[in-house]
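so i finally got all the pieces together for this one. its two components total, 346 residues if u count the protein bits. some of the lines might not be protein, just check the labels. i wanna see the whole assembly predicted at once instead of chain by chain like last time, that was a mess tbh
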Amino acid sequence: MHPDPDANEPVPYWSVAGLWLGIRYALPLAPAAVIFATVFGSIAVQKGLTLTEAALMSALVFGGVAQLVALDAWTQPMTWEAIAAATLATGVVNSRFFLMNASFRRWLGSLPAAQIYPMLLLTTDSSWIIGTRHQAEGGSNASVLLGAGVFLWVLWVLTSMLGYLAGALAPQPQRFGIDLILPIVFAIMFVPLWRGTGRAIPWAIAGAVALVVQHLVPGYWFMIAGALAGAISGGFIDERN
Amino acid sequence: MNATDSVHGITLAAILAMAGVTYLMRVSGYWLLGQVPITARLRRMLEALPGSVMVAIVLPIVAKNGLPAFLAIGAAMLVMYLRRNDIIALLAGLAAAALARGAGL
């Protein structure tokens, strides 16, 4: 055992109250999940998936952008080449989960692996935002992450199936700005992270790299490229107070 | 021809491959940071990481969606700064997006 340099950091724990708090934090994100899942379900019909297959993909992959991008590569009948394309696209889009869960290590690292690794299956943009917010507010209740994750997973699978059954009734996400809910929530959760312009240089680098990569490289590489550039530059910029 | 309760072998293979690569992404970052000592430099990287992820996702979306997205995100951040309430801030952002698109921006 090496001495713990973070002796003053709060110890993570589980509680039923935390589950409910996680669901409360997830409520503003629920409409976006419902719309997204409905759109996925209705496109799955067009791509020739059965209801069971669509529900299985939502349950096992549980990542909206990845599922839509994969359906874009879908063929009828499915070929091994299409499987490779769908899997690669899924990996690129979901590579942000690598960084998101890495950012939880210091928070959750002292909890047993048998409790944490199953919960990491439920990581989405939404649950990561919720966990990051809980941490930023000084909280350390791991159940917040679990409550939000389970709630959003159930909602996601059920509304994927509803969207499949509704078929062509796909709503237009652009009405009422529902397609912008996720970026708006990301921007809202960014506000409490602000600690002055000196600490913001890595974020500026992240944004610049993301924009350049978005412009030059097709697909979703901009997310991981920008996030990595920001984090790495943060490590090499000296703390200034 | 598709019975709704059936699962085709090749489709199942595709779903399992997607799920596998996704789970690998979900666990490997967390696992990796349990294997390396957390130096001061790595700690600074981790402190810059959440904000970097947010900016790297939001800015390209704003660039793609133009003025309505810019106004929506600006309104939401302003209200969050003033009121510190996520639901009010989200409603402000959505209202700004609807107004901007309604105005044909």
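Chain A touches chain B through 100 residues (CB under 8 Å).
Chain A is about 65% helix and 0% strand.
anyway lmk what u think
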